[in-house]
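It would be a great kindness if you could assist me with a short task in structural biology. The matter concerns a single protein, recorded as an amino acid sequence and a row of backbone structure tokens. The record follows directly beneath this note:
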Amino acid sequence: MVDKARRHGIVSRITPPIEMTDADLVVQYEVKMQQPMDCGGAYLKLLLETPQLSLEKFRGETPYVIMFGPDKCGHDVNKVHFIIRRQNPISMLYTEHAMTTPPAAKLDNVTHLYTLVVKKDNSFRVMIDNEVVKTGSLLTDMTPPVNPPKTIPDPSDKKPADWVDNEMMDDPTATKPADWDEEAPKTIPDPKAVKPSDWDENAPAMVEDPTAEKPAEWDEEEDGIWTAPMIPNPYCKEHGCGHWTAPMIPNPAFKGKWHPPQVKNPAYKGPWAPREIDNPEYYEVAEPHNLDTIGAVGFELWTMTGGVWFDNIYLGRDAASARKLAERTWLPRFEAESKIKAEAEKRAADVARAASLKTATGWVQKFTIYANMVLEQALQHPIAIGTTFGALFLTLLMLCCRGGRPNEAAIPIPPPGHLEEIDEEPKEEAKEEAKEEEEPAMPEQTVEPAPVPAVPAPEASPAPEASPAPEASPAPKEEETPAPAEPVERKPKKGRKSQKIDE
């Protein structure tokens, strides 16, 4: 259907006709709407096989057996039709039975697949894009029911003239109170209101715009005397001007129109309904799937939206064959169009987001926009985002757990041959300090580079006599004097005397 606001029709005969006795039926076809559907249908009809069937005279009144497909008009109608027509064998009249609670149609510009499966066990299912959206039974989920009711209201029965079906009535003994004033207004001026002191009743409502300037090209000889445009008086908006009236408040004396209270009606008989009689057109069908023979398939539609395409119509018995056809024809097209649609929506969202960032006036609005961007990415890539945040969380957790440990790399390590224990118990350190206090302290010495074997003692005040250091190494010979080295000075450890480091 290319043109809008026109009636369209196309029909094709089915050879041989489809018999609907004790057999399944599968109807499937594709629909693509180039533009958003405003009002129009996209359903197909399986026409009744009769000697009078004329494809040239195909109209909306042409008898059909099944009608199936999407329909949309305004905000009230958006559904997928499934309607069957059955003939009453007693009255010989045809009745349309529609699926109850029909699903909504998909109306975007992507090709969608509509499938109907009617089983010989009287069950049916409706699918959109190979997903089931409605299931039911021809015996219980059609309106009106396939089997008519056994009884019907007697059309000749009339309600008696004295029948009272009003359960409540006005109290006939009630009277309006003497102080009930029906004329009192609903609102009155606030008697406590006082006119503001800065209210100016003489100030004009409109004033000349003080910021306006006469255009440079204005010629008073040709254009007349220029006057500034009028704007609302800003004083009135801020302080108020013009005639002042007190604000209105609810009237405490207002009661409205008086009505007598309601009491139970002693003559009440209950709701009236006509008596039931046997339905002269009643019949019962146990196999409603046995429909009339189908002789043609066609589209007869009125639409206000142009550019509706149909393709790959399947009529058969096997739902698996219909699915295979859809996987070969519809699915590649659907995936490609869905990808194009998603990319177009993303570009539109990016443009709208950029415009929102430009017009955002505060950090709250900007934060909201960026938060929505993060949320969209998380929804599109949940695994990647979850892995990233999980790794970040574990990293922060490890840093927090190790934050209170001492820095082991900062502990100095003595050179080989002079290792000292640094993890002695406090009691052992105290004993060593006491022992060292009893013995004469040795002066601190440092190793200094010397070109000669003998190292002269520095000139200083005489130190107290001290016992010779145990196991002192012999002085080096002159020929074995090492090359001058940088002086190495070690600070004494806490709680101990400094130790001599030999060359």
In short: The helical segments are 220-223, 234-238, 319-359, 363-380, 382-402, 426-438. The first strand starts at residue 6 and ends at 18. Residues 418-424, 441-450, 452-481, 492-503 have pLDDT under 50 and may be disordered. The chain is about 20% helix and 25% strand.
